[in-house]
Design goal:
The protein is 93% helix and 0% strand. The chain has 312 residues and is mostly helical. The longest helix is centred in the N-terminal third of the chain and has 114 residues.
């Protein structure tokens, strides 16, 4: 907006100068012209600075493009290197994975075996635990049967209550007696508890000993049974081997009989062929055929002689 107004004023001045004749170029510049010229110089300097900045920015842009190209090349080379390295590492990982898979499979097999052993031991310990629980229940039952001691304890507690009432009435007189009674009661209680714990410990030890003895006897019986079963199995194996041998011998005999039968059939065919050849050579074939029904005995004797000749 201000430059447009300045240009208008310059035009007006030009007209006035044209109208005024010789007042034109030789007139000194006005204050506004001086300000406009200064502003023009300032703008020219700013334009020069801007052009210089543009040149600097262009050079910096070119340098940045070169650096970007260089970085792209280096990035491409780095990516190729990382790809090769990744491929090599993946192949190593695959081989290690196969090895780890085999090791894991071995561990799983070992774990399954250990679990089976654990279950077997657990079953045995569960049986022992059941026996001990039965013994403990029996012990509790015996403790419940000790009602006399409980009754004695109840009587003593009732007596303590009565003595406490008496103490409240006659504290000064009977304090020593009450203390003595309390000490006696605590002593009896401790002795009773000690005896109870001792009996429980004794019964528990006896139960453990009996359980171990039962387990040992059961184990020994299983061992004896296993030995008997092993002997029976060995006898069965021997018997099976003998049966197999007998079967093999029978198979060989059967094959030998089949060979002998085949040999007899072949020999019979050979005899028949030789007899036919002999009869044909002597021209007796037709006579033998016609008189076969009349002279069976002679044919049989002739065949017997021929067969004996063949055998000889």
């Amino acid at each position: 907006m201000p430059p447009k107004k300045k240009k208008g004023k310059k035009k007006g001045k030009g007209k006035k100068g044209g109208d005024g004749g010789a007042a034109g170029d030789d007139a000194p510049p006005t204050e506004k012209e001086t300000l406009l010229r200064q502003e023009l110089d300032h703008i020219t300097d700013e334009l020069t600075n801007v052009k210089k900045k543009v040149d600097d920015l262009r050079q910096e842009n070119e340098w940045l493009q070169q650096e970007a190209h260089k970085i792209r090349v280096e990035s491409h080379e780095y990516m190729n290197y990382m790809e090769k390295k990744t491929t090599k590492r993946q192949s190593t990982i695959i081989s290690l994975s196969d090895q780890n898979h085999q090791e894991i499979q071995d561990i799983l097999d070992q774990k399954a075996k250990m679990l089976a052993e654990y279950e077997e031991k657990k079953a045995g310990l569960r049986a022992i635990l059941l026996d001990k629980e039965h013994l403990l229940a029996k012990t509790k039952q015996e403790l419940e049967d000790l009602q006399e001691y409980k009754k004695l304890q109840g009587d003593q507690l009732a007596k303590i209550k009565e003595l406490e009432k008496t103490v409240m009435q006659m504290r000064g007189v009977h304090s020593d007696t009450i203390q003595q009674l309390k000490s006696n009661f605590l002593k009896d209680k401790r002795e009773f508890q000690h005896d109870s714990h001792a009996r429980i410990s004794t019964m528990k030890a006896a139960a453990d000993k009996e359980a171990l003895q039962c387990l040992s006897e059961h184990t020994q019986s299983i061992k004896v049974e296993n030995r008997e079963l092993r002997k029976q199995l060995f006898k069965l194996i021997q018997k099976t081997r003998a049966l197999h041998e007998h079967r093999r011998q029978l198979e060989e005999q059967r094959k030998e009989l089949i060979r002998e039968q085949q040999y007899a059939q072949d020999l019979k065919k050979l005899r028949s062929a030789r007899q036919h050849k002999v009869l044909k050579s002597f021209g007796l074939l037709e006579d033998a055929e016609n008189g076969a029904e009349l002279r069976p005995t002679s044919d049989q004797s002739f065949r017997s002689s021929a067969s004996s000749n063949d055998l000889s």
